[in-house]
C-alpha cells in the first residue's frame, strides 16, 4: 500500500486539486490546465482518511490521486467540452448547456429515438441541432424515459448532505457480492478487498462488465484478488444461485436501477432486514429512473470549469465515478447504529453536488501557468506543481470472467444444472 498519510497533507485548498492529477485533465487541449470548482479533491482525501482509520491503517491511499487514476492507465488528456474518454460532450440547449453520453453499443439507437431521427455515423451534429432547439427540461424528461445518459448542466441550489459519522467496523473475511460494473462500484469493492473482505464479482452471460473492454491494466487493478462468477438470471438454477449468494453476503454492491436486480428475484429490503449492508449506487437515487455515467453525472451536477468565454468544460475523467466509489466504501466500513442491516442509497449526482458551494460565484476557472517544463497553480502560500495522473501497480491478477463459478457454487451448496 501507499505510504501516503491517512489525512490530507494539504494546507491550501488548491493544493489538493494540483496534486490530484485532475487539473492536468481539465481545460482545452491547446490551453492551460484549469482548476475545477469546489472541494472534490479535498473530500476524496477526507474519505481515504476515514477508510484508513476504519481499517486500522491497513488501507492507506491518497484519495485525491485516485480520482485521476484511470487516466494514468489510458493516457487520457484534457479535451475541453469533450470528455477525457471521448464518449460524452457538453452541448448548448435553447436555455443553457447539457451533458450527453454516447458510450454503450445501443446508445446511437436510443439517441436517435430521443431526437426522433436516424443518426448518421457521426451522431453529434444532429444531436447538437436538436438540443439547440429544446430546453434542458425537455431533454431531461425524454432522456429519463428512454434510458439515455444525458441531462442539463445545473448549479446546485442547496448544500448536499454529507456522509454520516458512524462507528467503523472490520470487514476482514466478510463476503462482498459485487453486482456493479465500470468504475464506481468496482472501486468500492476494490477498497473493501484491500481491507480484507472476500469479494465475488457477479456478471451475466449477456451483460458482462463493460470495463473488460477497456484498459486491461486498470481493470486488473480494481479486480485483482477477487473471484468471478457468471450466472444466468433467465434460468431457474441461475436465479437460485443468485439468491443463495445474496443470502450469504455480508455486503452487496449494486450499480443499476433497483428494478434490475428485483427482476432477478432479489429483494434489497429483505436482505437488509436479514442483516445485510446493501450499497446501491445510482445516477440520481433509487427513486429516480435516470441513467448516468461519471462524466455526464458530474457535469449535470454542476462540476464543470468555465473558460474565459463562459463555456463549460469537463473536469477530470468521469470524476463522479471514483468520488462515489470512495463514498460507498467509507459507508460500507461503518456499523449500523442498531447492529442490523442497512441500505445505503448513494446517488452519484448527490455525491458530486456535495463538493460544490451553491453560493460560490460562477466565473472563469483559475488557470495554471507555465513553469519550466510543467505547470503550477498559484496559491496564497506559493506555487504548487500540477501533478500528472498517477497509477498504482496491481499486486495480483484479476480473474477471467466466470473463472470461479463452479467453486463458489460448491461452497454455497448449489448444484450446477
How would you sum up this structure, described in words?
This protein is 33% helix and 15% strand. The chain has 16 helices and 14 strands. It has a six-stranded parallel beta sheet, sandwiched between helices. Strands 1-2-3 form a three-stranded antiparallel beta sheet. β1 and β2 (96-101) form a beta hairpin. α1 (13-20) packs across α2 (40-54) and α8 (184-194) crosses α14 (320-332). The longest helix is centred in the first third of the chain and has 15 residues, at 40-54. The radius of gyration is 21 Å and the shape is globular. The model is unreliable at 1-8 (pLDDT under 50).
Features:
417 residues, alpha/beta, 16 helices, 14 strands, 33% helix
Q: In a few lines, what is going on in this structure?
A:
The chain is α/β, with parallel strands linked by helices and 417 residues long.
Rg is 21 Å
Which spans have pLDDT < 50 for at least 5 consecutive residues? 1-8
Instruction: Give the DSSP E fraction (strand runs of 2 or more residues).
Output: 15-25%
User: How many strands appear in the DSSP assignment?
Assistant: 14
Distance separating the two termini: 42 Å
Number of helices: 16
Oligomer class: single chain
Biggest pleated-sheet summary:
6 strands, parallel
Helix content: 25-40%
Overall 3D form: globular
Which H/E pattern describes the elements? HHHHEEHHHEEHEHEHEHHEHEEHEHEEEH
What class do helices, strands and sheet pairing give?
alpha/beta
Summarize model confidence as the mean pLDDT.
93
Order of strands in the sheet with most strands:
6-5-4-7-8-11
Amino acid at each position: 500500500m501507499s505510504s501516503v498519510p491517512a489525512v490530507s497533507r494539504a494546507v491550501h485548498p488548491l493544493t489538493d486539486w494540483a496534486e490530484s492529477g485532475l487539473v492536468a485533465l481539465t481545460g482545452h487541449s491547446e490551453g492551460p490546465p484549469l482548476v475545477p470548482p469546489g472541494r472534490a479533491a479535498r473530500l476524496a482525501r477526507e474519505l481515504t482518511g476515514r477508510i484508513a482509520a476504519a481499517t486500522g491503517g491497513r488501507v492507506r491511499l491518497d484519495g485525491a490521486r485516485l480520482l485521476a487514476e484511470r487516466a494514468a492507465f489510458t493516457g487520457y488528456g484534457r479535451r475541453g467540452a469533450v470528455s477525457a474518454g471521448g464518449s460524452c460532450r457538453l452541448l448548448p440547449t435553447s436555455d443553457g448547456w447539457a451533458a450527453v453520453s454516447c458510450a454503450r453499443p445501443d446508445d446511437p439507437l436510443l439517441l436517435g429515438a430521443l431526437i426522433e431521427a436516424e443518426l448518421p455515423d457521426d451522431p453529434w451534429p444532429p444531436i447538437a441541432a436538436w438540443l439547440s432547439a429544446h430546453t434542458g427540461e425537455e431533454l431531461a424528461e425524454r432522456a429519463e424515459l428512454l434510458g439515455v445518459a444525458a441531462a442539463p448542466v445545473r448549479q446546485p441550489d442547496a448544500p448536499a448532505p454529507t456522509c454520516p459519522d458512524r462507528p467503523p467496523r472490520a470487514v476482514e473475511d466478510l463476503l462482498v457480492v459485487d453486482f456493479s460494473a465500470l468504475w464506481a462500484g468496482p472501486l468500492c469493492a476494490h477498497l473493501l478487498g484491500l481491507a480484507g473482505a472476500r469479494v465475488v464479482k457477479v456478471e451475466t452471460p449477456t451483460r458482462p462488465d463493460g470495463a473488460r473492454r477497456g484498459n486491461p491494466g486498470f481493470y486488473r487493478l480494481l479486480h485483482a484478488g477477487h473471484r468471478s462468477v457468471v450466472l444466468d438470471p433467465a434460468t431457474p438454477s441461475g436465479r437460485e444461485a443468485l439468491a443463495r449468494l445474496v443470502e450469504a453476503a455480508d455486503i452487496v454492491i449494486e450499480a443499476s436501477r433497483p428494478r434490475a436486480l428485483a427482476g432477478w428475484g432479489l429483494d434489497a429490503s429483505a436482505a437488509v432486514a436479514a442483516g445485510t449492508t446493501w450499497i446501491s449506487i445510482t445516477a440520481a437515487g433509487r427513486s429516480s429512473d435516470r441513467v448516468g455515467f461519471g462524466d455526464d453525472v458530474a457535469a449535470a451536477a454542476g462540476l464543470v470549469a468555465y473558460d474565459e468565454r463562459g463555456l463549460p468544460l469537463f473536469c477530470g475523467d468521469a470524476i463522479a465515478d471514483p468520488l462515489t466509489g470512495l463514498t460507498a466504501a467509507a459507508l460500507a466500513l461503518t456499523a449500523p447504529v442498531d447492529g442490523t442491516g442497512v441500505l445505503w442509497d448513494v446517488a452519484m449526482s448527490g455525491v458530486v453536488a456535495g463538493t460544490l458551494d451553491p453560493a460560490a460565484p460562477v466565473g472563469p476557472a483559475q488557470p495554471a501557468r507555465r513553469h519550466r517544463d510543467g505547470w503550477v497553480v498559484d496559491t496564497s502560500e506559493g506555487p504548487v506543481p500540477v501533478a500528472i495522473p498517477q497509477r498504482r501497480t496491481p499486486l495480483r491478477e484479476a480473474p477471467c470472467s466466470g473463472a470461479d463459478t463452479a467453486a463458489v457454487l460448491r461452497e454455497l451448496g448449489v448444484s450446477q444444472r
